[in-house]
Amino acid sequence: MSVSNLSDTQQRAVTELFRRIAPVADELGRLFAARGHQLALVGGTVRDVFLGRAGNDLDLTTDARPERVLEIVKDWADAVWTVGIDFGTVGVRKAGWQLEITTYRSEAYDPSSRKPEVAYGDSLEGDLTRRDFAINAMAVRLPEHEFVDPYGGLPDLAAKVLRTPASPEQSFDDDPLRMLRAARFAAQLGFSVAPAAVAAMSAMAGRIEIVSAERIRDELDKLICGSHPRAGLTLLVDTGLAAHVLPELPKLRLEIDEHHRHKDVYEHTLIVLEQAIGLETTGPDRVLRWAALLHDIGKPKTRRNEPGGRVSFHHHEVVGAQMAKKRLAELKFPKDVVSDVSRLVELHLRFHGYGTGEWTDSAVRRYVRDGGHLLDRLHKLTRADCTTRNRRKAAALSRTYDQLEERISRLAEEEELAKIRPELDGNEIQEILGLSPGPVIGRAYKHMLELRMDEGLIGKEAATEALLAWARDNGLIS
């Protein structure tokens, strides 16, 4: 395929893609043509080729109905799945490629329904009209490799702008989720959204209420894991969409942070998110990013005016943890994500009790125990939470946290902190006290764990003496 207005780099990318996919895509295109049907690469697949980020997933569209698609591919595909067939999509695996073949269609929501109504179409151009943005409304006919771009998606890619093929009002009314997709693509691609689309998002923000929590969750999660989440989040807040899907975020906008008087909590939160991202080492960390975004959402509820013009937010981390758990659960996030994010929110201020290093080894052990498997993320969140413009203060906080991490590392080497257990296990406690399993053994185990946290490793003999002393003090033995 050759397109006259492609850059040399884009043309090479297109050529390389078709060299790679020709054995599969062209063969399938000929298979559909022989049965009297059209087939085209479409949407994100075509867009990503021009962005130089094509993978092994191919999106295709056809005039064939889903049942007909199944007939055509059943003897050709390595595997077929029909989980999306009610929406006109058949999944296919062939020679390492994942293909989704969707019948030409249009989607519209009934005002009272959360689910789209699917109506099949008969032309590629008609199908492209219903796409969310012009950059996703480009196609390549197979097997002839004819490039189809009726809405100027390629110029929009060059300009890094998101426009809807139809009027934005019609597009967002057909599927309100597209408003969130605009913010998501802004976060993923770093694109701006056309003013007309922004205006429609602002006017129609309430329409998002009919979309299911699961679909909203998926878009928000992709947004926050994008390369430019600030752009997407700012768009959500500025258009009023955030008030419907993540209301805790815009509520931060007018709350002045007592530690950072030069910025409000909303701006502070976005900076913390960006700084947390800067500390990632293995790609997007959704738990860390959500914790950074939600770490201060308890402040509006806990704001108090203090004497002297001060403002306090006592226990905002506890309130915020409860709010984060509630919001993420309502968005249908997995339980482990809900638990981990809310726990990080709860713990994010713990370091500030460290002062200039006054914690005992016992307190350090408890910090590690409470952080558990989240300790590395807690380190990153705590460091990211420093947004002061006072360089001296920022350097002092960094040095202090360096010292805490050094102490954790030293104690970890000495005591295997991550695996802290009492020096006497449950069986040994039963044997020493001459008791059967039960609540008393549980209390004894808890006492020995606290002793381990306070004293570190003291040896089996000393631990046994301590257990016996505890048992005598509690009237369990004479």
Automatic annotation (TrEMBL):
Cofactor: Mg(2+)
Stretches assigned to coiled coil: 394-421
Broad enzyme group: transferase
Residues in HD domain copies: 265-381
An annotated GO BP: tRNA processing
Protein name, per record: CCA tRNA nucleotidyltransferase
Domain of life (superkingdom): Bacteria
InterPro entries registered for this protein in UniProt: Bact_CCA-adding_enz_type3_sf, HD/PDEase_dom, HD_domain, HDIG_dom, NT_sf, PolA_pol_head_dom, PolyA_RNA-bd, tRNA_adenylyltransferase
Keyword Metal-binding: yes
Annotated EC: 2.7.7.72
Pfam family, one: PolyA_pol
Keyword annotations: Coiled coil, Magnesium, Metal-binding, Nucleotide-binding, Nucleotidyltransferase, Transferase, tRNA processing
GO-annotated molecular function: CCA tRNA nucleotidyltransferase activity; metal ion binding; nucleotide binding; tRNA binding
Lineage of the organism: Bacteria, Bacillati, Actinomycetota, Actinomycetes, Streptosporangiales
